[in-house]
């Protein structure tokens, strides 16, 4: 008891954090293990952080093995005093960990509005994206931190930012998670209800697919009525009462949006031509028995064959056909003209792509044929080399045999005393043997595989051909 009382009297925060690790493991030890700057920042020990920075001024921007800095830990756990201390000693706002998250993103995930406010005021970039292409607003929405979402939006964070991979917006994420409060905050901050993701789904459709019909209805109602629409935070009874009071039959009729005639898909050819201002060409199509169904299949060449020679009307008709198939309105506006131009360019690129693919297939076929021919030729070359080597072996054997015969003939001539030829004329046997030896040497040189053979030495001479034919015969 006396020891415990002594500890209580001498206890201080600094001595608490300076205790060695062995103390917490219940082991004895004499070498203390003080906290590092990352641990001190994560538990908000300002004095320990200050001591470390005093010893090493660069410690506030050092990263641990996960890429985290002391500022990231302090922001993540919402220790505003430690955040202020680190910022005052030059801690960088723009460093990011291995996941690409900055201190502002981590503070948004934690939900510390004071830390988020402090980091924004000292210059944090709101639209910085991490490895998942998320901004701080995405992190706050995903973590359900409504206060962080409100603080970020109040400082003009982009409520309509999109993920590049999926096209999802913060509103779509909140709708998919069923977070009615965050959906309300985003809608009041100006989040668009008409944006679509890469699947073509709006935020209302995302909420409907996730099973949150009430949120989907609120988003749809907000798109029609704006800030005066119902709020999910009011509860089901208040929502029904507000809808019933604000949407009487008379008010529904007054609030119904006007329908543009150009956005209505025509049901006959006359209506379609009238919408694009080409009703004067209707008799031409009547003469050719072309109705709406046939008209929607016509190409520019088909329109020429129908008798429409002017380029302007033909281009308007092909554009109207393209808009019909893409469910686009038949308006004659600058935006539609630009869209039509892009459509024509896409068609031209499609034709070029088709030709390029055909050329590629032909090139592949030619390469395949050349490869097959090369394989056959290489087989022939290997076989020819094999035969040439065999011929060389036979030629060497023949040359050795001729040399042996010449030696035997000379010995026999000396022993039996053959009649000598007239003076100045060679012996018939010697002449025959010399000729045979010369032919054997020519054949040996012709079939020698060590002699290089190229374009300048591809065929034997006439003399060599004669020697070979004599040898073969």
From TrEMBL:
<feature type="repeat" description="ANK">
    <location>
        <begin position="99"/>
        <end position="131"/>
    </location>
</feature>
<dbReference type="Pfam" id="PF00536">
    <property type="entry name" value="SAM_1"/>
</dbReference>
<dbReference type="InterPro" id="IPR047238">
    <property type="entry name" value="ANKS3_SAM"/>
</dbReference>
<dbReference type="InterPro" id="IPR013761">
    <property type="entry name" value="SAM/pointed_sf"/>
</dbReference>
<dbReference type="InterPro" id="IPR002110">
    <property type="entry name" value="Ankyrin_rpt"/>
</dbReference>
<feature type="region of interest" description="Disordered">
    <location>
        <begin position="448"/>
        <end position="473"/>
    </location>
</feature>
<dbReference type="InterPro" id="IPR001660">
    <property type="entry name" value="SAM"/>
</dbReference>
<keyword id="KW-0677">Repeat</keyword>
<feature type="domain" description="SAM">
    <location>
        <begin position="264"/>
        <end position="327"/>
    </location>
</feature>
<protein>
    <recommendedName>
        <fullName>SAM domain-containing protein</fullName>
    </recommendedName>
</protein>
<dbReference type="InterPro" id="IPR036770">
    <property type="entry name" value="Ankyrin_rpt-contain_sf"/>
</dbReference>
<feature type="repeat" description="ANK">
    <location>
        <begin position="166"/>
        <end position="198"/>
    </location>
</feature>
<feature type="compositionally biased region" description="Polar residues">
    <location>
        <begin position="456"/>
        <end position="473"/>
    </location>
</feature>
<dbReference type="GO" id="GO:0010468">
    <property type="term" value="P:regulation of gene expression"/>
</dbReference>
<keyword id="KW-0040">ANK repeat</keyword>
<dbReference type="GO" id="GO:0005634">
    <property type="term" value="C:nucleus"/>
</dbReference>
<dbReference type="Pfam" id="PF12796">
    <property type="entry name" value="Ank_2"/>
</dbReference>
<feature type="repeat" description="ANK">
    <location>
        <begin position="66"/>
        <end position="98"/>
    </location>
</feature>
């Amino acid at each position: 008891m006396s020891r415990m009382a002594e500890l209580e009297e001498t206890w201080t925060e600094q001595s608490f954090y300076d205790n060695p690790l062995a103390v917490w493991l219940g082991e004895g030890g004499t070498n203390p293990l003080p906290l590092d700057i990352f641990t001190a920042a994560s538990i908000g020990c300002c004095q320990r952080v200050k001591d470390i920075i005093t010893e090493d001024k660069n410690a506030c921007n050092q990263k641990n093995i996960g890429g985290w800095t002391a500022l990231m830990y302090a922001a993540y756990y919402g220790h505003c005093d430690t955040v202020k201390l680190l910022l005052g000693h030059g801690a960088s706002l723009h460093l990011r960990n291995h996941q690409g998250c900055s201190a502002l993103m981590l503070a948004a995930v934690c939900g510390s509005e004071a830390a988020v406010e402090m980091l924004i005021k000292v210059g944090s970039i709101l639209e910085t994206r991490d490895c998942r292409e998320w901004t701080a607003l995405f992190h706050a929405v995903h973590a359900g931190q409504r206060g962080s979402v409100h603080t970020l939006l109040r400082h003009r964070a982009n409520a309509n930012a999109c993920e590049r991979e999926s096209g999802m917006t913060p509103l779509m994420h909140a709708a998919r998670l069923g977070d009615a409060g965050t959906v309300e905050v985003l809608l009041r901050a100006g989040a668009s209800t008409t944006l679509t993701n890469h699947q073509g789904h709006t935020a209302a459709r995302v909420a409907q697919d996730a099973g949150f019909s009430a949120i989907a209805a609120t988003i749809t109602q907000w798109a029609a009525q704006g800030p005066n629409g119902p709020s999910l935070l009011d509860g089901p009874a208040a929502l029904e009462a507000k809808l019933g009071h604000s949407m009487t039959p008379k008010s529904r009729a007054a609030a119904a949006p006007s329908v543009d005639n150009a956005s209505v898909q025509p049901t006959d050819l006359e209506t379609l031509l009238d919408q694009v201002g080409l009703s004067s060409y209707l008799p031409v199509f009547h003469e050719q028995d072309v109705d709406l169904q046939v008209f929607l299949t016509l190409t520019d060449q088909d329109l020429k064959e129908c008798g429409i020679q002017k380029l302007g009307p033909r281009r308007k008709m092909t554009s109207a056909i393209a808009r019909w198939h893409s469910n686009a309105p038949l308006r004659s506006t600058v935006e539609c003209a630009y869209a039509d131009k892009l459509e024509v360019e896409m068609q031209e690129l499609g034709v070029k792509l088709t030709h390029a693919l055909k050329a590629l297939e032909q090139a592949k076929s030619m390469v395949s044929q050349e490869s097959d021919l090369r394989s056959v030729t290489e087989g022939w070359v290997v076989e020819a080399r094999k035969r040439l080597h065999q011929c060389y072996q036979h030629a060497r054997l023949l040359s050795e045999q001729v040399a042996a015969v010449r030696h035997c003939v000379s010995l026999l001539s000396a022993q039996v005393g053959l009649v000598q030829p007239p003076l100045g004329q060679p012996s018939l046997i010697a002449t025959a043997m010399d000729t045979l030896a010369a032919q054997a040497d020519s054949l040996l040189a012709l079939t020698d595989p060590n002699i290089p053979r190229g374009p300048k030495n591809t065929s034997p001479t006439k003399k060599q051909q004669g020697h070979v034919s004599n040898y073969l015969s």
